[in-house]
Amino acid sequence: MSAKQSWSDPSRYVKQIHVEESCLDLPYTREILNRADLPYTVIEDRSEPQGIDGVYPENLNEGKHHLLLCKNRGHFFKPCPGTKEYRCCDYQVLNIGMNCPMDCVYCILQAYLNKPWLTFFVNSDNLLSEMESAFQAEPERFFRIGTGEFTDSMALDRFTGLSGKLVEFMADKNQAVLELKTKSAVIGNLEGLAHNGRTILAWSLNSSPIMQKEEIRTATLDERLQAAKQCAEWGYKLAFHFDPIIDHPGWEKGYEETIKKLYETVPAESIVWISLGALRYLPSLKTIGTERFPGSRIFYQEFIEGLDNKKRYFRPRRVTLYKHIYGLLKRYAAARTVIYFCMESDEIWQEVMGYVPDDKGGIPLMLDNSVA
Ligand code: SF4
Asked: I need a surface site. Which of 40, 198, 237, 340 has the fewest CB within 10 A?
């Protein structure tokens, strides 16, 4: 069995847990320690876990073996930081923790974060009450919420069981949906829950060579799709994200095979939305990515700096990539599925999809309608 085939549950990479002193006796901390069954140390509040040598980011491989359980002392719930220059989808982010046991060459967290260990916030009561207050403050508003800005939504779920708490919390929130987005296949805690259609399970997909070479310790395409199929059978709605789309030799065939397999495995009607986004990155990520993954070629292409200071493929190249993938998706997608771009301009929308978001009321409304 290849290493690739054995990472459907990336929490297996965690070897050591560290707990902030003031969190040790919280029932949720105890629950996680019991489920994880790993050695743990207790550290002073706001101090750093010991036993990780080296400097960031070289020590990320080692750091990802370590999980810190602590309190979130800031806000859990905030708007996704889209940029005004590109069309974004008006998402709300639920900050459940930082960093991820998987290791994607293009992962923006390598440049955003400066600590190598994984962090999970155990004051989940505050998380739920903050959401409750936000809903009450704006009763007319529809919220689309995701947990995946600084981590993967499900990668540590075997330990944390957070998905179950969130799914049950969301079940009677008719003004909101929660999207749990992952590259793992950890779905065990989702079985048998009365989700009431308020939680969407989402997977990031890519061409197989990219998944194999650039997404380390992630579930294989088959594992992700089988997990999605199982969730659809449990009545969950699904979403998929082709992001980042990467220009590589054989990309046409690679994306075609993934899309064919997606629709062979998962019922088209269960998919509420699919996003497309070509590779984009902060210049500092290239330095980190090429040093940590010298065998990767993804940063050695022609890029242009966008209005958000991120590097992107030149516009004609993005259009070529998008047109091919959008054409394939349209061949199989159900009429209800919204296919949209994450952070692209009206010009790209028009050229690839033949309309701009405003023609249909804007991206947020298009997405809201697909789950209403
Ligand atoms: S799965 Fe997501 S959060 Fe984890 S390393 Fe990959 S890109 Fe980063």
From this structure: 40
